[in-house]
Amino acid sequence: xxxxxxxxxxxxxxxxxxxxxxxxxxxxxxxxxxxxxxxxxxxxxxxxxxxxxxxxxxxxxxxxxxxxxxxxxxxxxxxxxxxxxxxxxxxxxxxxxxxxxxxxxxxxxxxxxxxxxxxxxxxxxxxxxxxxxxxxxxxxxxxxxxxxxxxxxxxxxxxxxxxxxxxxxxxxxxxxxxxxxxxxxxxxxxxxxxxxxxxxxxxxxxxxxxxxxxxxxxxxxxxxxxxxxxxxxxxxxxxxxxxxxxxxxxxxxxxxxxxxxxxxxxxxxxxxxxxxxxxxxxxxxxxxxxxxxxxxxxxxxxxxxxxxxxxxxxxxxxxxxxxxxxxxxxxxxxxxxxxxxxxxxxxxxxxxxxxxxxxxxxxxxxxxxxxxxxxxxxxxxxxxxxxxxxxxxxxxxxxxxxxxxxxxxxxxxxxxxxxxxxxxxxxxxxxxxxxxxxxxxxxxxxxxxxxxxxxxxxxxxxxxxxxxxxxxxxxxxxxxxxxxxxxxxxxx
Amino acid sequence: xxxxxxxxxxxxxxxxxxxxxxxxxxxxxxxxxxxxxxxxxxxxxxxxxxxxxxxxxxxxxxxxxxxxxxxxxxxxxxxxxxxxxxxxxxxxxxxxxxxxxxxxxxxxxxxxxxxxxxxxxxxxxxxxxxxxxxxxxxxxxxxxxxxxxxxxxxxxxxxxxxxxxxxxxxxxxxxxxxxxxxxxxxxxxxxxxxxxxxxxxxxxxxxxxxxxxxxxxxxxxxxxxxxxxxxxxxxxxxxxxxxxxxxxxxxxxxxxxxxxxxxxxxxxxxxxxxxxxxxxxxxxxxxxxxxxxxxxxxxxxxxxxxxxxxxxxxxxxxxxxxxxxxxxxxxxxxxxxxxxxxxxxxxxxxxxxxxxxxxxxxxxxxxxxxxxxxxxxxxxxxxxxxxxxxxxxxxxxxxxxxxxxxxxxxxxxxxxxxxxxxxxxxxxxxxxxxxxxxxxxxxxxxxxxxxxxxxxxxxxxxxxxxxxxxxxxxxxxxxxxxxxxxxxxxxx
Lengths: 492, 492
Prior knowledge:
Two copies of one chain form a homodimer. Chain A is α+β, with helices and mostly antiparallel strands. Chain A has three domains: 12-70 and 126-286, BirA Bifunctional Protein, domain 2; 303-399, Rossmann fold (3-Layer(aba) Sandwich); 419-489, C-terminal domain of ProRS (Translation Initiation Factor IF3, 2-Layer Sandwich). Helix content of chain A is 35%, strand content 29%. The first copy, chain A, has 14 helices and 26 strands. Chain A has helices spanning 12-22, 39-58, 72-75, 79-85, 126-136, 181-201, 248-252, 277-286, 311-331, 346-356, 366-371, 392-417, 425-434, 447-457, and strands at 26-28, 35-37, 62-63, 69-71, 91-94, 97-99, 107-109, 114-121, 145-154, 168-178, 208-211, 223-230, 236-246, 256-258, 264-266, 268-275, 303-308, 336-338, 360-365, 373-378, 384-388, 419-421, 438-442, 460-465, 470-474, 481-489. In chain A, the strands form six sheets. In chain A, strands 3, 9, 10, 11, 12, 13, 16, 22, 23, 24, 25 and 26 form a twelve-stranded mixed β-sheet that branches. In chain A, helix 2 packs across helix 6 (181-201). Chain A is globular and about 80 Å long. The mean pLDDT of chain A is 97. Chains A and B meet through strand 2, helix 2, strand 3, strand 4 and helix 3 of A and strand 2, helix 2, strand 3, strand 4 and helix 3 of B. Strand 5 of chain A pairs antiparallel with strand 5 (91-94) of chain B, so a sheet runs across the interface.
C-alpha cells in the first residue's frame, strides 16, 4: 500500500488528517480554511442527508431556501446573536471587478461598485429567516411554521481542521415558529431526539443528551440542547444542537401573531442544526490504523466484489458468478460494486477498499468457484470467513446488520471505559491528563467557576445531562454545595 | 378566492410574478435581487434535483463540493472566463465586524480585518475546480474525472426576476476532465441529451437542441450547446447549457496528464449546468389564469383528497374511505394528501390546490359515498369525471400519465404554432412584433450581423439547431449567402 496512515498511537491528530486525505474524503483548498469535499466523502454526506431529511419530513418539516447574504442592518438586529458572530464574518463590500490599468490581464476591485450597505455571508440564518417570517405570520392559523434549510455557511475560523472546523461548511438549519412557549420547547427537545436517534442508529455513535450551561449557549438562545459524543482519543465532540430561542428573534424582528381571541403576541422560536462536522465524528468513532471504517447504513458502497483471476477467460467465468451475487444482493437492497479493473492487482484493491472503509469485501477466486464458496472479509474487525455462494445473500444481509450494531457496541463500550467520576479537583486534573474522556463532577453552578476550570484544565462543561441523577455533593473547584454532577471533557 | 392572479392576456409579466408569489413558490427577500424559495417551490425543485441527480449518476458521474469563494488570483487565471464574469461579482474584502464606537448596538466593518487577497463569491466554479484538479490528475489512469456539484452561485444582476434572473441562484454544475478532445466533445453532447430528456420527459417542456454562436458562448468555452424552450408569450428561454471547454482551463491552471506512452498533454474539459431558472420555464410552459400547473412527475403532491361533509360524524365516515383510497394509491407510488382541516371550507381548498397546481383533486362527498363514487378533477384541462371507488387506483395512475403526456403535447403544439420562417428582414420584424415565437431565418454567419439584428429587434440567435437542414438562402439582414436557417427569438 503506497498510501501511509500515521498510527493513532503515534499522533492522533495526524492520523485523523491522513484518513481524511488518503481515504479521499476531503482535502484542503486554495481558499484559506475552506475544504474540498471529495466524491467519496460527499457520497457519505449524501447518505447522512437523505436519512436526516427523511426524519425531518417524518416529523412534519418542509424544506425551503433563504438568501446567502444578510444585510448588516438585519444581522445586527438581534444583539446577542450579532455579538456572538460579528468577529467571524465574511463581508461582501463590492459587486464588481475591473481591469487593472497598471497590470494587463489582472483585475482589481472596482471602487465605484461599493455597496451602500455591506452584506454578511450567513454564519447562521436566524436574522434573514425571522425577517422573512414577519411577512408570513399573521395569525395562529399560520403556526407552527416547521421549516428546514440545507445550505452552506461561513464562519471565519482562525484554526481550521478538515470537517471539524472549516471556514465554509455544509449543514442543515431548522427554524420553527410556534404559538406557545411550551410547543417551542417541545419542538426543541423533539429535534434533539431526532439527532440522537440519527447519531446512534445511523452513525453508530453513542451520544449523551443534555443542556448547555449559559456560557456555552448559542448566541441568542434561551436554552441550547446538545448531543455529545466521545472520540477515540478521549476528547468530546458536540455533534448537534437544538436551541430554544424564546421570543428573542420575534422581538428583534417584530414577528407577532393574533391568537384565537385576536390578541397579538410575539412568536416563539427554535433552531437546530447539524453539519459536515458529523463526518469528523464518524471518522473518529470507528476508524483504525488501516483507514476509514463506515457503518453499513451510511456506506455508499456496502459490499465490493474483487475477482482474483488469471487471463481474460478466468475473469469471464468469475464475472458471471459475480453478476449473480450482485443481483441477489441488490434485490435485498444491498449496494454492491464489482471491481473488475485490470489496471490494479487484487492486493492493491483489498488495501484500497480497506482504506476507504467499505464494510464488506468479497474475494472471488477461481479455486473458490469450484468449491462453490467465496471469502468474505469484514472491515470492522478485519476477520474473514468462507461462505457458500448459495447462502451469500442472507449471510451478507445479516453481516451488515451485525457490523452496524457491533460498531455501536464497540463505541459505547469505549465510552463507558472512558467515563469517570472525579470528586476533587486534583483527581479531576489527573483523570484528564492520564486517562482523558468524560468526567462527571460536581460544580457550583456559576459561570466564574466554569471559566476558571476551563482556564486551568482546558476542560469545558459539555452539558448537564437530561434526566440527570440528583445527588448532594460539593463543587470540585470551590467546594460549594451542588445537587448534581455535570459532564466535563476536553473537546474538539 | 382571495388571492388574485392577473390574467396572462392583461399583463404576462405580472401574471408570472403573481403565480410565483401566490402559489407560494418564491418571494422577494430583504437582499437586493435575492429570492426566498418557499416550501412549495422548493419541493418542486427537490423533485427536479432528484430526477437530474439520478440521471447524472446513471451516466457515471459522482457529486463533490468545492469552496464558495475563489481567490482573485485564481479567478483571473482564465482570461476570457474572468472577463465574462468580472462585472457581476460579489466580492468579500473583510472578515470581521466590530462595535460601532459612534453608535451603540450597531456594527461596522473592522478596517483591520481586511483580506490580503479579495475573495470572489463563485459565479461559476471552473477556476476553483480546475485549480483543484491539478492536484488530482497525473496520468491517463486518473481520467476521465466525471464530477458534479449542487451549489449556490452569485451573479450580480441589475434587473432581477424571481427564478429567471436572481443575484443568488441554486444550480448544479458538472465539471469533467478527459484525455482526448473527442471524448470531451462526446461528454458535452451526452449531457445536452440528458438535459433535453429531463426537460421533455419530466418537465413536459419541448426543447430545441443546438449550438450557440460565438457571441453567445459561455465565457471560456470553445463551444456551448444549449436547449431552448418557448414560453407561452412567445419568448425563448435557455433552459440548460453544456460547454466544451477545450484545453482552456487546463492551460490556465497547468493541468497535464501523462498518456499511456508517458507523454504529457493538457487535459480536455467540459462543464454543464441547469439552475432554479428551470422553475421559471416550468411555470411559463403550463400554468394558466387559475394558477400553477405542475406535471405529475414533478408534483410533490400528485393527488389531493378533499372531503365535503357536515359535522364530525360525516367526516369520520369520509375519512375511512379516504384512508382506503390513499393507501391504494400509495401502493401504486402516487403521492396523496388528505386535507381534512376544519379551518377551511371545501371551496377554499379547491381554489387553493388549483392555484398550487396539484395535478388531480378527488372530491369525496357523503352522497358520492352511497353511490360508491368520487369526483375526480384534472388540473391541466380543468375537466371533472365521476369515478367508481373500486376502480380509482388504476384510473388515477392512468390519468397521471395522461396529464403528463397531455402537457407535453399541448406545449409542443403551441411551440409549433409559434414557430415561423422569415425570408426578409421586414417579414422577420413583423413576425416578432405581431406573432412572437421562434423565427427560423438565414444569417450570414458573422457576429456583426448578429449584433445589428439584436440591436434593431431585440431578437438573438438562440442556437444553430443540431442536425439542421442544409439549404441555400440569403441572410435576411445583409443578403449574403447562407447554407442554413438559424433559430432567432426574443428571449428571457
